Amino acid sequence: MSAAVVAEPHPHSIEVVPLSAHIGAEIRGVDLARPLSPQQIAAIRAALLKWRVMFFREQFLSHEQHIAFSAQFGELTPGHPVFGHVDGYPQVYSIAKYRKATRFAGQSLLRPWTGWHTDVTAAVNPPYASILRGVTIPPYGGDTQWTNLVIAYEKLSAPLRAFVDGLRGVHRFAAPAGTSGTDVFDKAVEQHTLIAEHPLVRVHPETGERALYVSPSFLKEIVGVSPRESQVLLELLWEHVTRPEFTVRFKWEAGSVAFWDNRSTAHLAPSDIFDLEFDRQLYRTTLVGDVPVGPDGRASIALQGSPVGAAAAVALN
Ligand code: SIN
């Protein structure tokens, strides 16, 4: 019997497996714990621009490896500009089940777009990408969903596209009116209020595509229209961007990593985990972003708070 010749996979080749029509691909054939080759970095960057969110399986990274992987794609921000970072790791943010102690449960107005957001859009330069790794994952429940804001823009009617092209909105990360600022969450938010005015349509700095930049949880009002006009128009746009055909839903496992383009997506953290007794723990890094620009060339402006810069570097061994 002749020995079978098994071809070794090319060390630089990665496989991109699309998961839905408009967004999301699983990336196979790469070990994120090791330094990537220039070819692998280029392939992952290309997949990020095309598929908006990429998923990797069975990548059991330490915090150090998570940071080192992320740093190959840009400068890391502090873990979170308001809620801080994991002890000893200024660039890592803990996404634990009870991080906000479900303080809004039962109080908020639950609409289909409740909880959808793009990371830190209350900053004048929201992170360009986020890299989230799963460590403790429930056996069921706890999926995350992402939506493609470029296809959402393209699927608006032409008159509505022309209308929203000229609009701007205020994104706010502030303690809700009437809260006392006495608990840890309110205190952190009070001390780090972030407010920015962004275009409602953002031109992607790498591809030139237009994205409907309407982060539902942070975008509070449209500039220059009446409060009622703002509310009705935003609800129309939020309903539109969260249409299921623009989305992908990811089932986490321990060792899964999601890496998304924060300039052209919004995502929804799960709330079903609060109906289950299982724990859930993920860790996130984010990469320093640029200041968004609208189709008219006007850049976003900070109304309160500073741009999110790079986290202080720490030695990684
Ligand atoms: C996030 O909003 O970055 C976290 C998403 C999740 O908890 O699934």
Describe this structure in words.
The chain is an alpha+beta fold and 317 residues long. The strands form four sheets. It has a seven-stranded mixed sheet, with helices on one face. Helices cover 19% and strands 24% of the residues. Bound molecules: succinic acid (SIN). Succinic acid (SIN) binds next to strand 6 and strand 16. Its cofactor is Fe(2+). Pfam families: TauD.
CATH architectural name: 4-Layer Sandwich
Strand fraction: 15-25%
Gross geometry: globular
Q: What is the radius of gyration?
A: 20 Å
CATH class: Alpha Beta
The set of bound ligands, ions and cofactors reads: succinic acid
Q: In brief, what are we looking at here?
A:
The protein is α+β, with helices and mostly antiparallel strands and 317 residues long. It has a single domain, classed as Double-stranded beta-helix (4-Layer Sandwich), CATH 3.60.130.10.
Describe the secondary-structure layout.
Layout: E1 15-18, E2 25-28, H1 38-51, E3 53-56, H2 63-71, E4 93-96, E5 116-117, E6 129-136, E7 144-148, H3 149-154, H4 158-165, E8 168-173, H5 184-191, E9 194-199, E10 201-203, E11 210-212, E12 219-222, H6 227-241, E13 247-250, E14 257-261, E15 265-268, E16 281-287, E17 301-304
Parallel strand pairs: 2-3
Antiparallel strand pairs: 1-2, 3-14, 4-16, 5-15, 6-14, 6-16, 7-13, 7-15, 8-9, 8-12, 9-17, 10-11
The site of succinic acid (SIN) has 10 residues, from strand 6 and strand 16.
